[in-house]
Amino acid sequence: MKTIQYKSDTAIFSSSEENIEPYDFIIEEAKLEHIHYINQICEETLSSAKARGTGISGRPPELLAKKMIEGEAVIAFTLKGKWAGFAFISSWENGKYVSNSGLIVAPEFRNTGLAKKIKRKIFELSRQKYPEAIIFSLTTGLAVMKMNHELGFEPVTYSELPNEDLFWENCKSCVNCPILLSKERKNCLCTAMLYDPKKINLHNLNL
Ligand SMILES: CC(C)(COP(=O)(O)OP(=O)(O)OC[C@H]1O[C@@H](n2cnc3c(N)ncnc32)[C@H](O)[C@@H]1OP(=O)(O)O)[C@@H](O)C(=O)NCCC(=O)NCCS
Known about the structure:
The chain is an alpha+beta fold. The protein has helices at 38-52, 61-69, 114-129, 142-151, 165-169, 177-182; strands spanning 2-7, 10-15, 23-29, 73-78, 83-92, 97-105, 134-139, 154-156, 191-195. The protein has a nine-stranded mixed beta sheet with strand order 1-2-3-4-5-6-7-9-8, sandwiched between helices.
């Protein structure tokens, strides 16, 4: 059984499924006071990408700090303050697009439904801060594709993504960047998924 209690903008998420140790998570918009978690987030992001053998765009600590300070990130931790998960958003082309990126859950808390909660919260934050924006996500991971689909995202070609060079600069640190460049940014190993608020979508009714 899973229960969620909402306290202002903070969700306390309890997991007590069979065979899974019960955890209570606080999931909230990241702030200045969470900056001390950054090294752990960066290290886990890098080691998880290596373990998966997939590419990932760079997440320098300075970028994550900026996201936390500007209210463009969601963080999860246990009631005892142990870091459990993270994700952030970025806006492109003057707010026409918003990317949902950097989703990571600490290995010991995986498969408890935590990523799903973080993903929903980061999606809600995107909608709240940029209600008109097209929201998108680039991933090679099946878990993220499933979660995006549940939120109403649909797969698209790269032609539907921002054209802004600054956005694509982020791919430079990914091992697959030579593939992206050889395809003139028209394709790569990541699947692009997009949520367009202007298109009526039945998924919205479940939010
Ligand atoms: C991907 C990741 C965030 C999932 O976190 P999690 O907390 O274990 O995910 P959840 O328990 O919330 O599961 C969400 C859904 O994804 C599915 N899922 C989780 N891990 C999966 C995997 N490795 N392969 C396929 N599906 C997976 C779950 O079954 C669930 O689907 P369901 O609702 O249909 O049952 C986590 O494994 C992680 O941090 N991985 C390393 C970083 C990464 O790959 N980030 C994504 C970059 S785009």
